[in-house]
Amino acid sequence: MIRVLVADDQAMVRTGFGMIIGAQPDMEVVGEAADGVEAVEAARRLRPDVALFDIRMPKMDGLQALRLLAGPGVTDPIKVVVVTTFDLDEYVHQALRNGAAGFLLKDSGPALLVEAVRAAYSGDALISPSITVRLLEHLSQPAPTGDDGGLSPRELEVVRLIARGRTNAEIAAELFISVGTVKTHLGSVQSKISLRNRVEVAAWAWERRLVS
């Protein structure tokens, strides 16, 4: 079973997410939190496989809670998927840099929420396509255009598709390669540019205007 922690200051949201998670045969909600402090305490105590965090919560916001649980330098980080109504570019940027294992808008729907939990659990990461297209391209203070990090042409193709929110299977189909080859390219990319997951890879690509 995939053990999930849900943190949101709105009881109706927690209940809704709980119903979606509980309806899956391979998932269960092991805890809930109504604020950021409670979320961090519950995550450390329960060690869920995946945590779903809202950004705007009382006492401590979801971004600070994320940084404490999954940010740079954290030993044995928790896999946190940020699920929010989102309204500021810097929120996305900060979440990606603080180790988010996915980023969804609350209106993405049940199917994408479940997919994001499974992706995070398996070590992958999912970004809502609407966030990818509408928001990541507007990240502030982009790096110089044309900085490709020394990646090969094929690795750059994979990076651009990741930045468009494509899954490994979709990238494999589009480039006529196997899913295993996609994972190999992604691993090489992460090693070359020192990034931890595909969410950070997507942010890196948008910052450098590698995606038009």
TrEMBL record:
GO biological processes: phosphorelay signal transduction system; regulation of DNA-templated transcription
Keywords from the UniProt entry: DNA-binding, Phosphoprotein, Transcription, Transcription regulation
List of residues that carry 4-aspartylphosphate: 54
Entry's Gene Ontology molecular function annotations: DNA binding
PROSITE patterns: HTH_LUXR_1 (PS00622), HTH_LUXR_2 (PS50043), RESPONSE_REGULATORY (PS50110)
Domain Response regulatory span(s) in chain numbering: 3-121
Protein name: DNA-binding response regulator
